[in-house]
Amino acid sequence: MKNKKQLFEDLIHGVFLILGLITVGCVLLITVYLVVSGIPAIREIGLFQFLFGTTWESTATNPSFGILPFILTSVYGTAGAILLGVPIGFLTAVYLAKVASPTIKNILTTAVSLLAGIPSVVYGLVGMLVLVPGIRKLFQIPDGASLLAAIIVLAIMILPSIISVSITALEAVPKEYEDASLALGATPIETYFKVSVPAAKSGIAAAVVLGVGRAIGEAMAVMMVSGNVPNMPSLFQSVRFLTTAVASEMSYSSGLQQQALFSIALVLFLFIMLINATLNFFLKRSKEG
Predict the structure, then answer these.
(1) Is 281 exposed, middle or buried (0-12, 13-18, 19+ CB in 10 A)?
(2) How far apart are CA 147 and CA 201, in angstroms?
(3) Rounded distance between C-alpha atoms, residue 45 and residue 266, angstroms
């Protein structure tokens, strides 16, 4: 009996090991493919000219492949979405996890789940039909398709990830922590923000990491509301992100242009890896501290 049980456990362990190796193998395969496909264009164009050039004219007679506008737009767009979306998502999670009545919590959590299931193209369509004209009328500018529109759409899109993961982290805090705080005379709100939130900070930080990943990797919705023009980033000007640069030109690209798009994908991949590694580093330091 023990031998059969041990054999079954070994089998399950082997299956999990194989699945883990497959996952690691897929990441390595993607990394190698992007490096092999992206390096030739960087060699031909020049690393400095490629990363710090301000002009992208991939189909011109004398093409130019500078992606600095795309890099800065992605940085500003992601930072803006995080600054706008994280406080809203965090406070919503605290309210739903600790303050809201069961009825309101069920209604709002269902709405958050529905928000997570909406395809990105729908976000882009609503933004293009409602948000872009609204920005144009509100700020009296020629075109509402801009970096501001992209930031707002991305901020809305990252809310479900931040809210759901933060709620899970807050609900995992032992009730004894809160009871002890209340017994010492703290108010419920003080307890939630000074006891529950610090105890759940690793889970909340993980929610922010997920939000950052969603914001950086989004393409379709951003393409529909940002104008998709390779300008240097400005809040009320049409812009192009790293993701949309690849998505908008890959279908008709060839030769050096196609290789340059693979190089953009490589830069985006390294950019995401760097951000995740940095955030994980600070998460580990906060846990050790």
Answers:
(1) exposed
(2) 31
(3) 15
Helix (H) or strand (E) holding 57: strand 56-57
| 198 residue type, one letter | P
Low-confidence ranges of the chain (pLDDT < 50): none
Bridge partner list, 239: 227
Tokens of 38: 């992206």
Apex CA 128: angle with CA 122 and CA 132, to 5°?
140
**Which DSSP state fits 23?**
H
On whether the CB atoms of residues 245 and 70 are closer than 8 A, the answer is yes
Sequence-distant (6+) residues with CB within 8 A of 204 are 90, 93, 165, 166, 169, 170, 197
- What pLDDT was estimated at residue 219? 86
Residue 248 to residue 268: CA distance in whole angstroms: 15
Q: Cβ–Cβ contacts within 10 Å for residue 149, how many? A: 27
Q: Are 161 and 211 in contact (CB under 8 A)?
A: yes
Whole-model pTM over 0.85: yes
pLDDT at residue number 286: 62
Place of tokens 């082997």: 14
Give 55's DSSP letter. -
Q: Which helix (H) or strand (E) element contains residue 65?
A: strand 64-65
- The single residue listed with the structure tokens 């991305």 is 154
Contact 93, 163 (CB under 8 A): yes
